[in-house]
Amino acid sequence: MDLSPPPGDLTLLPEWLALAGHRSANPEPSLARLFAEDSQRAQRLCVEHEELLLDYSKNLVTDETLALLTGLARARDLPGQIEKLFAGARVNSSENRAAFHVALRAPRGSVSEIEGNDVGPQVQAVLARMADFSERVRSGEWKGQTGKRIRHVVNIGIGGSDLGPRMALRALRPYASADLRVDFLANLDGADFAARVEHLDPAETLFVVCSKTFNTEETLANARVARDWLVAALGAETAVARHFAAATANVEAAAHFGIDPALCFEFWDWVGGRYSLASSVGLSLMLAVGPEAFRAMLAGMHAMDSHFRRAPLEANMPVLLGLLGVWYTGFLPAETHCIAPYSQDLAEFPAYLQQLEMESNGKGVGAGGGELEHHTAPIVWGQSGTRGQHAFFQLLHQGTRRVPVDFIGFARSHNPVADHHDRLMAHCFAQSEALAFGHADEPHRACPGNRPSNTLLAPLLTPGVLGQLVALYEHKVFVQATLWGVNPFDQWGVELGKKNARQIFSEIEAGSAVSPHHDGSTRALIQRYLAERRGGD
Ligand code: F6P
């Protein structure tokens, strides 16, 4: 199988040049005119799969734009790349391995092969162990060191070992057990640790150390203080075996830390950190919502996986979202992309997507090693509606920058309080309408309109719908990576800062010997820090 990225500089492809020509030959399409001229636009530029509906009609595209974009996708062999992803090929070229997260949510009994090796049985075996442990903890059968049941779980992890389960637990709060409080500790800041354990009884607390590498500074530092806190309170090292579990691809290191191998839940090097929610990284989530809801989320992910693999490009949700993003980033241009869930339960979704999109596609060098001549991932940001409306929507409506928005809403609420939900959704629809069609008035009151958005609508935020949403955006990122020619599964850019921090930490620990190799600013800052720190002793 040919694993090389599609050949050629994207911006020299005839299909790219055709899009550039299309952009410069035509004035920016007016959404008002497009809707006036085509009474079926909303129905036509709409795609549905399972419980998700994507309305992409309020985008600055004509039928010709969409045809040119799918032409570009074909020129980059998107269908072939999708097949490679699903075939367990080594699509993570710089690390020479598969990115086979779709195998984590394939139905029991299906075959998911990486180079002839079916990973399905090992995936199901870990899921079964997670389910067994979760049930024992949830039922109170699993006892801590002093014989008390577990009432608090603290997930210790960062990046992909934090953002996914944190976001999903917040989203599935209505499905969570009232008897088990699950919290997340991520930051290398004593304030985070202090706040997380403040009201906890160590005898009733389980820590889940979540780390693919089991080598991440923040996570290990937090795990060590958690272990000290626990052992100091319970009086014996043996407590670690009853109060610590791990989700990791490095079981050896977790066991070396002192975690009972029976409570080490494995995942594999072919699962990328930010694509790991469906793996044992979801253990804290499963502890909270139970194995059945967790499996329902996996089924939702699988439903979107199947859609992505089989639907024609023109009616393929992740493909459409990806292509629209390529259009805005490359040709309009737009530098950022706003995520606006009209759901408090999805409050963590923008932060989750920041890592998914920006760590995956925030690259200036192509998978083949050459510098890119085009922009890649936009800056992803956002906040739940209606809070964002009273913070940054002013800029969306009248600012000088173009910011495409994804609105996400639900027909029903898990918390039907008075008429809140109807009001909330009225705002969701009103915002995309106002952005698209604006309003003429005196200059300072006028809203120019023609500001693009997608709207995703589902009946209710269930585990299955959450799974569909997560997989939708994962695959959108893959589509864009394929078009932009980057490897979305590595993140070499984060390494330099880690290396520098190790060096500076050793200098801080030494107390005085600040290396002359630092620039003047960094050296002065460290020296000032050391002086101030001494002053506080
Ligand atoms: O530093 C970035 C990163 O490698 C992310 O990609 C990853 O999700 C995070 O750190 C945590 O890594 P680990 O799960 O190995 O602790």
What can you tell me about this protein's structure?
This protein has helices spanning 14-25, 31-37, 41-44, 63-75, 78-86, 120-139, 163-171, 190-197, 217-234, 239-243, 251-257, 283-310, 317-331, 349-361, 393-398, 420-437, 463-484, 495-510, 520-535; strands at 46-49, 52-55, 113-114, 117-118, 152-156, 181-185, 205-210, 244-248, 264-266, 336-341, 379-382, 405-410, 453-458. Helix 14 links the parallel strand 10 (336-341) and strand 11. The mean pLDDT is 96. The termini are far apart. With 537 residues, the protein is α/β, with parallel strands linked by helices. It has a six-stranded mixed beta sheet, with helices on both faces. It has a five-stranded parallel beta sheet with strand order 6-5-7-8-9, sandwiched between helices. A two-stranded antiparallel ribbon has the order 3-4. Helix 12 (283-310) crosses helix 17 (463-484). The longest helix has 28 residues, at 283-310. The protein binds 6-O-phosphono-beta-D-fructofuranose.
